[in-house]
Amino acid sequence: MTKESIAVSLDQVSLPDKVRVDLNDFVAQLLDFYKGDLLSVILFGSAVTGDFVEKSSDINMLVIYSDLNIANLNTVAGFAKKWFSKRSFAPRFISKRNLTSSAPYFPIDMLEMKDAYVVLYGEDLLKDIVVDPKKLHGQLAYEIKAMRMRIKQQFWSSTGDVVRIKRILLERFTSIIHLSRSLLFLKKKATPVAHRKVMETACAEFGISKEFVEMMFNLKNDKVRLDGQKAVQAFTDMMDVIRIIDKNVDEVVL
Fold first, then answer.
1. Which of 25, 157, 217, 230 is the most exposed, having the fewest neighbouring CB atoms within 10 Å of its CB?
2. At what angle do helices 133-158 and 162-186 cross, to 10 degrees?
3. Where does residue 99 rank: exposed (0-12), middle (13-18), buried (19+ CB within 10 A)?
């Protein structure tokens, strides 16, 4: 695949011009670096769903090989260091065999990838992966209950550190978006891919606070400043949202 053909694939996604140029160059160099061992490069995540924020979003990719070993990863270290210092590329390197054997155990990730991705090079190795609702429910139940157990601990450990509080809130909110989408899928509701649409639907279906969701999107986009009082309220509201999702997960009947 040529650099020009990668650019054609990138026409399917909405990204800033600088990001598009860097991504095109990155994939072209990746192909040249790995040559015959490379089977597929797949773009997914916020770069595809339309939720990309240049200052904070990673550029997520699956980089799939016929075989991948430690020697390969060691060799790529210099190449990776160069690009990571320039742009937040987050490629997941995996062999085809490992992808096939691991996919059933990561149904939330697979659901997110399968519903919004662009093949930049090679084979479409996601199209035949099937998401098992029972395994999805199991992982969803574990993730939301683990979050519910840890959120208060995270609040206590970060009290007074506004920067850390903001990071925790945004990380947990991103997880909530993905978990909400999986829950909508299990309840056979509309499952949009854009994050705002996901949370608008979750608010309507599960009774999640619209005000909290809007505040979190504003926080993500640096449209609101977080002080001590707002941080406490945000954590309180987030605990309520986690509890609501947990309750709905327990009510799922498969």
1. 157
2. 160
3. buried
